[in-house]
Specification:
The complex is a heterodimer of chains A (380) and B (129). Helix content of chain A is 21%, strand content 32%. Chain A contains nine helices and 20 strands. Chain A starts with a helix and ends in a 13-residue tail after the last strand. Chain B has 129 residues and is an alpha+beta fold. Classes of the chains: A alpha+beta (380), B alpha+beta (129). Chain B: Keywords: Lipoyl.
Chain lengths: 380, 129
């Protein structure tokens, strides 16, 4: 089973070049199977991807996502600058509110997908993908024509995501403050910490919170979090389950489902593009909107045996019409599911497509996004 | 890590059990543990030719696909279709009900190229440290 050795870090030699999370030793102590994700050495799973996945859907789990990048954007013109560099409408944000948005190139290709949190009128936090930290920072600085100060403070912070139906109680016990009435996509200062934030965001499709804290306090806070969640049975969750949870919830992964080569309109993110303002990529996206997209991201489930994977070709009537961008076994649905970038008009729900898996073609059906939707009954 | 004494092994983590006329093949306890949750097995076809050291079937975890290699050359005599409906059996009982396929070896000497249980144990120690 050689592919395994490329997937996960087996020897100390191959790991020396990778960055370690602030609570790396805690993961090892918890028995994590470590692997490589971009430049980082991260926990893939602790006991089992499926068990961890199910635990986030039914209980509460914590992900160490300290590999993510944190930029602070400060100054009187911060909002003007951000509105220019992202596609979504930053000017609609009030203090403590956040939005999800692509960052586009002039040709509409996606540089990254980020969350912009407005802390104050002149102070914003932007959380970016780990693999894109350097690229994004260069892009932000290069396109800054205002006196706004953009600082990359990624190394200063640890980020823990507490997710699942029981996440509210755990987060409240840890922070000793109420978070249950926080709306989705909002952020607050951690009341009893010198520096720290709690945001009502996540990447699982469950209710959840993301806790941003100083890297030097990461171990103390990680341990406090595990202790605070004891009653609720908190478990650490690896990157394996993070991927299956987000896929079921119809959330996209940069580098797979979207890249520099795809536009927000092609990957179903039109709702995050606000055309009533000026921004980088607007002309290209307006033109594309007028002429219609030629390819579009579609969700599908397999009708026959097999597991779709990133990079597999998709055919309709023997013609190659696209490629799988993400695919996996779905622990919640107990089906094999995926996303594929398909040529129009094959993206309608019900369309039958063939996925090339090794030597055979396997039938799949296009379905509606998302695969999984949490029942809206939020209980701590 | 469970390594039964009466089986032979490969460096790619398959086990081989010699029978009268055939050999039975599966993946080791170490392999199932490393692969983790097995959610799909693509078995060879009965009658298919197997070449020693060449990929013959595929096991998939939630995260990735792994090739399984034929420990000896020969012809596939039977397959364990239980793995098609219950792939996790390869996790639960790798040396028993989680067996993969049975081969009629082309050369009965070839199995001697495989590792003994103590050689496999040493190999695991070397490769994981």
């Amino acid at each position: 089973m050689p592919p395994y050795y490329f997937e996960t870090a087996m020897t100390t030699d191959s790991m020396t070049a990778h960055k370690q999370l602030p609570v790396h030793t805690e993961h090892l102590a918890l028995g994590a199977k470590m692997g490589i994700f971009g430049d980082w050495e991260v926990p893939l799973y602790y006991r089992s991807v499926i068990e961890e996945h199910d635990w986030v859907r039914t209980g509460v789990g914590v992900f160490d996502i300290s590999h993510m990048g944190e930029f602070f954007v400060r100054g009187k013109s911060a909002e003007i600058f951000l509105n220019q560099i992202v596609t979504n409408q930053v000017s609609r944000l009030e203090d403590g509110k956040a939005l999800y948005t692509p960052v586009c190139r002039p040709d509409g290709g996606i540089v990254d997908d980020v969350i912009v949190y407005r802390l104050k009128a002149d102070s914003f936090l932007v959380i970016v993908n780990a693999a894109n930290v350097e690229k994004d920072f260069e892009w932000f600085v290069k396109n800054n024509q205002t006196d706004t100060v953009v600082s990359n403070e990624t190394d200063r912070f640890a980020l823990f995501a507490v997710q699942g139906p029981r996440s509210t109680a755990v987060t409240e016990r840890l922070l000793e403050q109420t978070v249950s009435e926080m709306p989705y996509y909002s952020i607050r200062q951690a009341a009893h910490w010198k520096t720290g934030y709690v945001a009502r965001t996540g990447y699982t499709g469950e209710i959840g919170y993301e806790i941003l804290c100083p890297a030097e306090q990461a171990t103390k806070i990680w341990r406090a979090l595990m202790a605070a969640g004891k009653t609720e049975g908190i478990q650490p969750i690896g990157f394996g389950a993070r991927d299956t949870l987000r896929l079921e919830a119809g959330m996209l992964l940069y580098g797979q489902d979207m890249t520099d080569e795809t536009t927000p309109l092609e990957v179903g993110l039109e709702r995050t593009v606000f055309f009533e303002k000026d921004f980088i990529g607007k002309h290209a996206l307006l033109n594309q909107k007028k002429s219609g997209v030629k390819k579009k991201l579609a969700a599908f489930e397999l009708l026959e045996r097999g597991i779709p994977r990133h990079g597999y070709d998709v055919y309709v009537n023997g013609q190659k019409t696209g490629v799988v961008t993400s695919g996996s076994y779905s622990p919640t649905l107990k089906k094999n599911i995926g996303l594929a970038l398909l040529e129009q008009p094959h993206v309608q729900a019900g369309e039958i497509i063939d996925i090339q898996i090794r030597q055979s073609q396997v039938k799949a059906k296009v379905v509606n996004f998302p695969f999984y939707k949490r029942q809206k009954k939020e209980k701590g | 890590m469970n390594i039964p004494k009466d089986l032979r092994y490969t460096k790619t983590h398959e086990w081989i059990k010699p029978n009268q006329e055939t050999v039975t093949v599966g993946i080791t306890d170490y392999a199932q543990h490393e692969i983790s949750d097995i959610v799909f097995v693509e078995l060879p076809k009965v009658g298919q030719e197997a070449a020693q050291g060449k990929a013959i079937c595929v096991v998939e975890s939630v995260k990735a696909a792994f090739d399984i290699y034929a420990p000896v050359s020969g012809v596939v005599k039977s397959i364990n279709t239980t793995l098609e409906s219950d792939p996790a059996m390869a996790n639960k009982d790798p040396y028993g009900n989680g067996w993969f396929f049975e081969l009629t070896p082309a050369d009965s000497e070839e199995i001697n190229n495989c590792l003994s249980h103590s050689e496999y144990e040493d190999f695991l120690k070397q490769s994981t440290h």
